[in-house]
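thought: fold this chain, then report.
action: predict
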Amino acid sequence: MSLAFGGTIHRIPTIVSSRRVGSKQPVASARGNDVRPAPARPRDAPIGRRDALKGTARGLAAWTLLPSVIAAPIALADPVELAPTAELAPFVGKAGFFIRYPNAWVKATDRPGTDNGKAETLALVGNFKDIDTVSVRREPMDLHRDFADAATNNGNEGEDEATRASRVAVALTASERDAVAANQNFGVVGGVENGRSGVMDFKLGTSSLKPGPGSGKGTTQPYFSYQYFTEVCRANIEEGAGGAKVCVGPRGDVLDTVRRVNYAVATESGGYLYLVKASAVEGRWDTVGPLLREVAESFRVPQSY
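observation:
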């Protein structure tokens, strides 16, 4: 399958989301790099499971969770444009793709791919001290017929590129939305002990498509980009007072959640969906987001000549 390209380039804003009261993580202000520490509960104050559920639920009650059926992307603030300062080095993966990443980053994974029809992560690079990462994943197109329909305008002739890109973003974030609706899901977030993780909150930003080199000489194809926010519980998700979601550990204690902003680039080549995901913790996104976007957007599919 090949994807035809056409249309204007749309700017993608930075996600600024509300914060749960009581979180120990810094709060990113909509004014840009103004990061304010959130108040924390005194460490010596005892708290039982029932009280913890009620207290945390009061803070979570202010959140607006994305429903399982998406109507339109949420309104997001314009980003603070910071010029990336890191020098980017070229990286040709063993699987043949091309990308650029900062010289100071670590190349943790570089696999050639097995061509056995299975989904696999081909590469992982990043600043692992601060957990700023970019991964390159390849999945068979047979698993993504919804992406294929959205990317090629099947059944939607005359659809503009902005709507086309939005439908691609919705199709490729279905697992996160399903996890929010189910309160608990397994395997959504890799690298978690016992494979247990749950997406408590998800917000989808705007999307765009840009032209880029195809696998054949002189060819071009669309590269779809979209930004989204997730809050992940690496334990059990329970319902607290007022129906708010709370992350509860094995001993009944309320655990901190992982809040990250993600920027993804997706395109098809050789029967595979290539999905590049740049990700950082919410409190760092205003600082490193422009750099992560530049790394993700430098991705090019393997060349066949």
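thought: worth noting. The radius of gyration is 20 Å.
final: tokens above.
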